[in-house]
Amino acid sequence: MIKKIGILSSHNGSGFDTIQKACENKELNAQVVLVVSNNTNAKVLEKASNKNIQNFLINSKKYPNENLDEKITNLMNEFEVDFIFLSGYMKKIEKNLVNTYKNKIINTHPSLLPKFGGHGMYGRNVHEAVIKEKENESGCTVHFVNEKYDEGEFILQKSIKLDENESVDSLEEKIKKLESLTIVEALKKII
After folding, report:
1. Could you tell me if residue 167 is inside a domain?
2. Which end of the chain is more exposed for a tag (fewer CB within 10 A), N or C?
3. Span 85-105, mean pLDDT?
4. Does 51 map to a domain?
5. Burial class (CB within 10 angstroms; exposed 0-12, middle 13-18, buried 19+) of 61
6. Is 152 inside any structural domain?
């Protein structure tokens, strides 16, 4: 039975790219059926359109005075999504969605949680903190999402050693590659 995946993304959706490619290559017994973004300019919406995947913009500008959490949850239900993947989604997941999709919402974080997690810790902020703290390793964590930032149960972690002269840019590049591999491996475990 092919699993249906919904994507929530705010920008480029590199996680979407990784998952879509793995589905197309039959690495995952799954299909991306829906992409939702809160950002009018998100490239992920265009990418989804190009792959003929249904995509929607849901934000408070477009839907003032509406419950966006409910709107997103209803869309996921309508498309009979089995799992939701957060691909750089910059909004906190609200309780309606969390409760409806308990242990079905997956996020990737660019550090070895619980280190360098929590509010405001995303992308370059994480790598800057890792370098500043003179850590000798970093990595990524794929985890289930609950109502607290970066505190859901881990699915998979992978680590790398930092070079002596590691920069934020070089670390970011290494972690992005590692995340691509880890996302597919983690999804294989749960699908």
Report:
1. no
2. N
3. 94
4. yes
5. exposed
6. no
What is the end-to-end Cα distance of the chain in Å, rounded?
10
For residues 117 and 109, what is the distance between their CA atoms, to the nearest angstrom? 8
Beta strands in the chain (DSSP E): 3-9, 30-37, 54-57, 83-87, 105-109, 137-144, 154-161
3-state secondary structure of 66: coil
Residue 42 lies in domain: 3-101
Q: What is the pLDDT of residue 92?
A: 87
Give the Cα separation of 103 and 179 in Å (integer): 20
Q: Using 50, 70 and 90 to split pLDDT, how confident is the model at 162?
A: very high
pLDDT (mean) for 145-149 = 88
Answer whether 154's CB lies under 8 Å from 139's CB.
no
Whole-structure pTM value: 0.95
Q: Is 131 exposed, middle or buried, given 0-12, 13-18 or 19+ CB atoms closer than 10 A?
A: middle
Q: Are strands 137-144 and 154-161 parallel, antiparallel or unpaired?
A: antiparallel
Q: What's 42's domain CATH number?
A: 3.40.50.170
Tokens for 38, please give them.
């809160």
Residue 84 within any structural domain of the chain:
yes
The identity of residue 66, as a single letter, is E
